[in-house]
Amino acid sequence: MSRRAVTLIEVMVAVLVGGILSVALTRLLTSTIRVSQKGSSHLTNVQAAAILVARLEMDLVQAESVTITPDGGLDLAVRTGAGTMPVRYRPGEDQIGYIRRIPAAAAAGGEEAHPYARDQKVEVTLTPAATPPRRGFFLEVRVRSHPSGAEEHVIRRFIYPTMLPENREQDSLGWKRD
After folding, report:
1. 3-state DSSP call for residue 2?
2. In sequence order, what DSSP letters do the residues of 82-142 get, joined into one string?
3. How far apart are CA 32 and CA 44, in angstroms?
4. For residues 89 and 60, what is the distance between their CA atoms, to the nearest angstrom?
5. Nearest Cα to Cα of residue 99 among 78, 63, 124
6. Per DSSP, what are the bridge partners of residue 176?
7. Among candidates 120, 124, 114, 70, which has minimal Cα distance to 97?
8. What is the rounded CA–CA span in Å between residue 124 and residue 69?
9. In the chain, where are the structural domains located?
C-alpha cells in the first residue's frame, strides 16, 4: 500500500501559480475600470460642451443685439414672444463653468442663473464674421477636464443671428423685406 503525499515543492509551485494568476487578473480588472472611467470622463466633457453650445446657439440666433465683454462673456438682447429679454453669459470663478443669467427685471421670479459645464474649465470665444450687409459669428467652445485640464474638447460653429437688424433686412435670396 503506497501513500502519496503532497510535497512542499508542489505546494510552493501551486501557491506561485495562484499568485501569478491573481496578479494578472487584478491588473486586467483595474485597467478595464480605468478605461471605463476615462471613457465616461470623455463623454461627460463632450456632453457638457454640446449642451452649452446648443444653448448659446439658441440664444444667438434669436439675439437682436450681441456684445462681447472683455472678460469672455456675452451680453445679448434675445427676442421672445413678449419683446426682448436681456441674457448675460459669464465665465464662472477661475473659468470653471459658464453661467447664463437673466436679470430680475426680465425673469418672473427674480434673477435666473444657470451654470453650464459646472465641473469643467470653459473658454467661449465669439468672433464676429461680417459679410456686408449681413453679420454672423464664429463660436468656439473649449471644455477641459478639471483640475488637470489634460483632456480638452473643442466645438466650433458658425451662427447666423436671424434677428439682428442688419440680417432681418434681407432674406436668404438677398431681397429686401417689407
Report:
1. coil
2. TEEEEEEEEE-GGGEEEEEEE-TTTSTTS-EEEEEEEEEEEEEEEEEEEETTEEEEEEEEE
3. 18
4. 11
5. 124
6. 170
7. 120
8. 11
9. 30-168
Q: What is the mean pLDDT of the chain?
A: 84
The amino acid sitting at 172 is S
pLDDT per position as a tens digit, 90-109? 998 888 889 999 886 655 66
Query: What is d(CA 4, CA 50) in angstroms, rounded to the nearest whole number?
Result: 70
Q: Return the amino acid letter for 6.
A: V
Show the cell assigned to 23.
496578479
Residue 71 one-letter amino acid: D
SS3 81: coil
Other C-beta atoms lying within 10 Å of the C-beta of residue 125: 14
Amino acid at 86: P
pTM here is 0.72
